[in-house]
Amino acid sequence: MSNSPKENLEKLGVKLPTPVAPVANYVPYTKSGSLYSISGQIPLEDGKLPYTGKVGVDISEEDGYKAARLCAINIIAQINNICGGDLGRVRKIIKLGAFVNCADGFGNQPEVVNGASDFMVEVFGDVGKHSRSAVGTNALPRNVSVEIDCLVDIAD
Prior knowledge:
single chain, 3 helices, CATH 3.30.1330.40, alpha+beta, 5 strands, globular
């Protein structure tokens, strides 16, 4: 992969969507110094939710991975908006906080969340390597399979 996040997205064939506006009483991100906390992003694509239900019951682990990747695309769309289109301003993806809608006994949340983690590294290289949590839960908003938030360091 190239060193440019924009070029990496192009090589991956990913066109960033318009960032989704909040649907409740919150903001898409908050800022403290150079740190931005991106609100949880869901696997929304072209106004549709292609991945709903419990991973391991209603959708496969592989589709859960794809859902997490789509969450990462939506996170990067928010970051791109913050950066005015210059993803080169991203100094570090610090942390991903991931929630996987799954049945009791499902223990492969890390493998599902790798869909987002792998994508961050594909796009940002070493800058995309991050800490994270991968938590299983019994339900998520709109019955989505995955929701992920992000803490990112962005240069002014």
